[in-house]
């Protein structure tokens, strides 16, 4: 055409021209997206940040007197531990807080598989001693079940080991409770 001197910029050419259809017409296809190779970290997509954990595990830290000391490139960062709480299993929650003489008795009886735990369960039920369970009946039932399992497992020595371990835990809980009571009384007196 004569009078048309405009120059149009050509649009970027598609990677492949559209193939002709059977009737001689071109089939419309969406333009091809630029090919970018993007690696997907499928573990990260699934919520598993291995690389992130690996980098964080290189940090050096230590715990001293209710404080966590973290070595960073800028120096040592100090964080205070405000509170911690142990989460116990179903049998561990049934350990009663007993007076020291009864706790020592349960420890001695625990050398006969299940006997110390059985006595502790009866003390929870009849003596009114507390466990981590809200009701005394629930704590007593778990103690009695544990005693039964200790007797059943005694021939393969697992019951004996578990029984002695439970006797030690009963004694430790009683000692811990006594120490906490003594500290509370000292705070009240001061």
What features would you describe in this structure?
With 190 residues, the protein is mainly α. The protein has seven helices and three strands; from the N terminus they run ααβββααααα. Strands 1-2-3 form a three-stranded antiparallel sheet, with no helix packed on it. A hairpin with a 2-residue loop joins β2 (67-72) and β3. The longest helix is centred in the last third of the chain and has 32 residues, at 158-189. The N and C termini lie far apart (106 Å).
Q: What would the average pLDDT be, to the nearest integer?
A: 80
Q: Distance between termini?
A: 106 Å
Count of DSSP-assigned helices: 7
User: What is the global morphology?
Assistant: extended
Which residue ranges are poorly predicted, with pLDDT under 50 across at least 5 consecutive positions?
1-15
Strand composition percent: 5-15%
User: What series of H and E elements makes up the topology?
Assistant: HHEEEHHHHH
Task: Give, in spatial order, the strands making up the sheet with the most strands.
Answer: 1-2-3
Number of strands: 3
The biggest beta sheet is recorded as:
3 strands, antiparallel
Rounded to an integer, what's the Rg over CA atoms?
35 Å
Helical/strand content category: mainly alpha
Helix percentage: 40-55%
